Amino acid sequence: MPTVACVLLALFTVSFAQRPDFTHHAVLDPNGNFQLNWNPTANGSDYFTFECVVATRGWIGLGFSSNGAMAAADMVIAWVDASGNLQISDRHGPAQGNGYPPVDSKQDYELVSGRKNNTHTIITFRRKQDTCDPQDWKITSDTTRLIWAYNDQVPTSADDISKHTERGVKSVQLVNPQTKDGMSAILADPSTVTYDFRLTSVTLPTEKRTLYWCEIMELPKWNKHHIIANRMLVQKGNERYVHHLVMYGCGEEDMSEHLGKPAACFDDMGVFNPMHKCSSYRAIWAVGGEDFVYPSNMGAPFFEDPKQRFVLLEMHYDNPDLKPGITDNSAFRLYLTEKLRPVETGRITIGLPVSPVWITIPPKQQRFTTYVYCPGKCTSRMTEPINVFTGLLHTHLLGVAMRVRVIRNGEEIKSDMRDDHYDFNYQTPVYLSKPLVIMPGDDIIVECTYGSMDRDTMAYGGYGSDNEMCLALLEYYPKRNLTSENCMSFVDPKNLTEILGLKKDQVSLGSDGVLSENVVTVMNKNQQNVTIADWYKNDLKVTNEMVTKLQNYMKNSPQAVFCNLQGKDDEGGNVTDVTFFQIDGPIENNRPYVEPPTVCSASTGSSLAATTQPTQTTTNHGASKVFSEVVHEYIDVIRKFILSRVESSDG
Ligand SMILES: *[C@@H]1O[C@H](CO)[C@@H](O)[C@H](O)[C@H]1NC(C)=O
Ligand SMILES: *[C@@H]1O[C@H](CO)[C@@H](O)[C@H](O)[C@H]1NC(C)=O
Ligand SMILES: *[C@@H]1O[C@H](CO)[C@@H](O)[C@H](O)[C@H]1NC(C)=O
Ligand SMILES: *[C@@H]1O[C@H](CO)[C@@H](O)[C@H](O)[C@H]1NC(C)=O
Ligand SMILES: *[C@@H]1O[C@H](CO)[C@@H](O)[C@H](O)[C@H]1NC(C)=O
Ligand SMILES: *[C@@H]1O[C@H](CO)[C@@H](O)[C@H](O)[C@H]1NC(C)=O
């Protein structure tokens, strides 16, 4: 071989080795001018390596922010200077507003490599996951708002950074594996088949921002397959309106009479249309989500039973500006294989039922939390542990944090199924690097924390974007018998409204168990019968005392538990039925999980290391053993209502 070729090859190899292979990738701006590649931890060290590829020959800036604003954000600015030298500057946003970012007293970003060509600047740098510098962001598995900026002007020094010409913000998950990993292998595999569920010409209303659109679709008569990936094909231009999609199985129910008759999922009273008998949840996509790819040994069963012929597609559209003339033909694509994989997955939902008398969030609160209790009495029905490997944590606009806590023998275990920086517009599933194991008998608490500073009236549970939810939609392996299972809990609705100043006989909960915002009515002080939605808006004056009582009530009151898990009962018999029972107070979490503190070497001179022990506040306020009569009465209607949705599900 000629020597020249050998030399070239050697050169090529050297430069290639200097640039690490990046496992994670995101395009931060809509035009693809700011691309980011990164490795969560390079070779097991606690360093994160980032590569910015930006269409500029000036400076580039990347920041880590809790809310997308520049104030108090951790920022780094880098450029190739006029002499061709690489420059980097660790900075932070001003305490308030969007002014000039001061330089950190401690520099924690290290240059790895960089260059620029005629159009682009490419700079690679690294930093520790936790730099122990209070002026830096500690990288966690939460959603991170990355702020990005650049300017074509080349700085002459770190004191000469001109104002950005372009900037923006993009939410990403920096730590966990990306849900789209492995997509190229699936696309390249000739045994992969696709099946599209396409909505046809849905016209968005202009009188309300939220539309839930439901369409029944008939499945082809295929052999059993595994779903190995899915992708949302959002119609071009409709990205801001298509909010989320859920696909439900209809069990063995014959839904043929609904074919070709798509319609709104609820009427004005918030009551489901008959299609909503389909309730076993099979797949989900939400705004911000990318392709979802199953681990290579796993698949979710599909077409497994020829008697299960129908699915329901439920699409949530959000049109906040009430823009007229929007029609949508988006589709949801499943990637399937007939080469069945060794491990099958199943789904469980743990959350609060959606109602204005089960979820209430007072206005002007920095943080207000609702609690779902799924006690060991329910999980002990499982015959073996389940491994939760992914899940969608779902609230609406006010959600700021959410976590799934698992308590085993009185001690909370580590759970990464959590997000302290929730972003309504970035609902990509949490994809865990290590599964969260739930053992039979474990207690589960789901906490949803809301921030309502910009609200003037009570926010409450409902299906609209302005209303709230609290649901952890978890996927696990190995699959159990039901296609989807639920564990929900809820407070006594009349005791809740009593805290808000209503006497029990002023409130009428309706008779169909739906308890939606237009069904629950209140006799107001003028002896008018109004919906609870109107009463919250026009009559309720929220006081501080009420907020304190309400927060205490949401956390510490007895709750009714709806347990829909198949398995064994206390005596070893088989349970296939849904059961309701009550718990007298909250699930105790006396030994909460404490994150081990970062070891900060003395040389860093940082005073950050203090870890705060979470304070133990869960107490049983001696709540009555007997659920109030109202709940007993309503357990029956709720049971009827939920059963009407569950009975038709597969299993
Ligand atoms: C990890 O180390 C190996 C061997 O030293 C090297 O080949 C590889 O490129 C490194 N990976 C990263 C992501 O730095
Ligand atoms: C400059 O580098 C970028 C990023 O690697 C590349 O996409 C672009 O094609 C390059 N431009 C030129 C003119 O070489
Ligand atoms: C599921 O059902 C099958 C057949 O009825 C049974 O053999 C199996 O033990 C069940 N599995 C679980 C986890 O309940
Ligand atoms: C209030 O109106 C609703 C329907 O509009 C009705 O169902 C309810 O019974 C009424 N309540 C009273 C106390 O009149
Ligand atoms: C429960 O179901 C399993 C599997 O179907 C069966 O083997 C077992 O005998 C059943 N147990 C009881 C107590 O019915
Ligand atoms: C509801 O309030 C009544 C007193 O008005 C109390 O006796 C009962 O235990 C409470 N029930 C629940 C479930 O909080």
Describe the structure.
It is a single chain. This protein has seven helices and 42 strands. A seven-stranded mixed beta sheet has the order 31-27-34-24-35-39-42, covered by helices on one side. Strands 11, 14, 18, 19, 22 and 23 form a six-stranded mixed beta sheet that branches. It has a five-stranded antiparallel beta sheet with strand order 1-2-3-8-7, with no helix packed on it. The protein folds into three domains: 2-175, Cellobiose dehydrogenase, cytochrome domain (Immunoglobulin-like); 178-344, Jelly Rolls, CATH 2.60.120; 346-602 and 613-651, Sandwich (Jelly Rolls), CATH 2.60.120.230. It is mostly beta strands and 651 residues long. It binds 2-acetamido-2-deoxy-beta-D-glucopyranose (6 copies). One 2-acetamido-2-deoxy-beta-D-glucopyranose is lined by residues 508, 521, 523, 529.
Kindly list the characteristics that best describe this protein.
single chain; 651 residues; mainly beta; Immunoglobulin-like; Jelly Rolls; 3 domains; 7 helices; 42 strands; 36% strand; disordered N terminus; binds 2-acetamido-2-deoxy-beta-D-glucopyranose; copper ion binding
Please specify the SSE layout and strand pairing.
Layout: H1 3-18, E1 24-27, E2 34-39, E3 47-54, E4 59-65, E5 74-80, E6 86-92, E7 110-116, E8 121-128, E9 143-151, E10 166-173, H2 183-188, E11 192-198, E12 202-203, E13 210-218, E14 225-233, E15 242-249, E16 263-264, E17 280-286, E18 292-293, E19 298-302, E20 310-318, E21 327-328, E22 331-337, E23 343-344, E24 346-351, E25 360-361, E26 368-374, H3 376-379, E27 386-394, E28 399-408, E29 411-413, E30 418-419, E31 430-438, E32 443-450, E33 459-460, E34 471-477, E35 484-490, H4 493-499, E36 507-508, E37 521-523, E38 529-531, H5 532-538, H6 544-556, E39 559-564, E40 567-568, E41 574-575, E42 579-583, H7 629-646
Parallel strand pairs: 19-23, 24-35
Antiparallel strand pairs: 1-2, 2-3, 3-8, 4-5, 4-9, 5-6, 7-8, 9-10, 11-22, 12-21, 13-16, 13-20, 14-18, 14-19, 14-22, 15-17, 15-20, 24-34, 25-33, 26-32, 27-31, 27-34, 28-29, 28-30, 28-32, 35-39, 36-37, 37-38, 39-42, 40-41
This protein binds 2-acetamido-2-deoxy-beta-D-glucopyranose (6 copies).
One 2-acetamido-2-deoxy-beta-D-glucopyranose (NAG) binds next to loops.
